[in-house]
Amino acid sequence: MQVELIEGGSFADARGSLLFVNEFDFKSVKRFYQIVHPDIKVVRAWQGHKIEHKHFYVAQGSFVIATVRIDDFTNPSLNLKTEETILTAKNPAILSVPPGFANGIKALSSNSILVVYSNLTLIESKHDEYRFDSSLWLNWDKYQE
Hints:
Distance between the termini: 33 Å
Low-confidence stretches: none
Shape: globular
Helix content: under 10%
Structural class: mainly beta
Number of strands: 12
CATH architecture: Sandwich
Mean pLDDT: 95
CATH superfamily: Jelly Rolls
Strand content: over 45%
């Protein structure tokens, strides 16, 4: 499985506007939560999963979401290649990150809100959580204002 961007769209008329990602299928979602970043200095990285599948949607502002396929969850290589995707609330899309990857996030605008959907319950997820140092694999400073 690969990381996949599921693009959405928008519609506006005199009644207001509507944002959507109609191609996203909620069948496997067991829970969701929001992450609020009040400023652009915070980096949340790296959190990996062997079985959890996560989906990221920006409700407000913008985020860079970096992903890296983990080769060894006990002792990962130091030279793994990242992929970075910028998501914004103005362009609705969901980034689908399958099992076997670690992800990291950083807000690109103040007070950004990221909604995360997961295929596991909170208890199931706690048994599938692998954390790695945020300085690995990506220089987050390149995403400064």
